[in-house]
Amino acid sequence: MILAFLVSSNAREAIVPFLVVWSACAVGLVAQLRVIAAIPRLNLGSSTTVDVHRKLVDFYERHALMATLVQSMTGPLLFVTGTMLFFLWKYAGFPQFDHQDFMVFGSGTLLSFALSFFPLRGISQRQRRYITANLSELEGEELDADRISAHRSGSNRLFLMLLILVLSGLAVLFYFIIGRS
Fold it and tell me: What are phi and psi of 94, to 5 degrees?
């Protein structure tokens, strides 16, 4: 795909925004590898539950934002790749880009990042609150059955919303693939 992009007749005008996003994704990959290396190595045979939760809380406090930022780069990567494939399919190359095209492309890239970042940040904060609450309960040695059932119902609701979004996305994808043929 990149080779087709580079041999396109109008690639010089479009290569800068594509390379900016791809290089940001490459930097994100390196950052993701660093975050993965920072995940606490848990020896569950010798660690207590309280120690495991303390390590997880510490990990979330130090690395949650970076992990969320890096995971959010998936949205722009998919947007850029999809745009490239659309141009190759529709125009058999890349059309001339003017200033409005760059603004639309940049806005779409930022929007795809925002649509990835804010839900992932919410999920990360929810996980942090849940682990912190578990740690405080373990240290206090009291369990809250209502909070556990509320977490389960919240998880079920979140799963249902995610399933609806995935199915809607697949329906739109199939509409454009089958409907345009």
Answer: -120, 130
Contact in structure between 76 and 109 (CB atoms under 8 Å) = yes
CA angle 28, 4, 171 (to 5 degrees): 70
pLDDT, tens only, 125-138? 888 888 888 778 77
Smallest CA-to-CA distance from 78 within 115, 124, 118 is with 115
Per-residue b/e over 133-163, b at no fewer than 16 CB within 10 Å? Answer: ebbeebeeeeeeeeeeeebeeeeeeeeeeee
CA distance 126 to 163: 19
DSSP 41-73: ---TTT--HHHHHHHHHHHHHHHHHHHHHHHHT
Cα 112 from Cα 157, distance rounded (Å)? 24
The dihedral region occupied by 141, where left means phi > 0, alpha psi between -120 and 50, and beta the remainder, is left
User: Are 64 and 130 within 8 A, CB to CB?
Assistant: no
| Contact between residue 109 and residue 72 where contact means Cβ atoms under 8 Å apart | no
Q: What is the pTM of this model?
A: 0.60
